[in-house]
Amino acid sequence: MSYPTTTPSHSLASAEDWGEEAPTAPALTGELVTSLDDPEAGATTAEYGIVMLAAVGFAGLLVVILKSDEVRELLLGIVRNALSTGA
Q1: How far is CA 50 from the centre of its chain?
Q2: What pTM was estimated for this model as a whole?
């Protein structure tokens, strides 16, 4: 499967116009340049994934707890009490 490539909307000068200080190809095309020398490259993405897994697990635990009859009655009692004291 091939994906479409995007190019910058502005026109770029040719390499001859830059002389000896022509920028590299990734800078011209807007591609993301990453350094392979960084030992922590991708650490933020991994941490984000772990946090998302923890959040999903916590949400699942809350669903199980909130489905119990005792918790449902407790929450309904709190809502009824809050609505009845406003009048």
Answers
A1: 12
A2: 0.40
Q: What is the Cα–Cα distance from 64 to 68, expressed in whole angstroms?
A: 7
DSSP conformation class of 10: S
Q: List the pLDDT tens digit at each of the 87 positions of the chain.
A: 555 555 555 555 555 555 556 555 555 555 565 556 777 777 788 889 999 999 999 999 999 988 889 988 998 999 999 999 765
DSSP type of residue 30: T
Measured CA angle at 74 (ends 71, 76), to 5 deg:
110
d(CA 11, CA 48): 37
Asked if 75 and 83 count as a contact pair (C-beta separation under 8 A), the reply is no
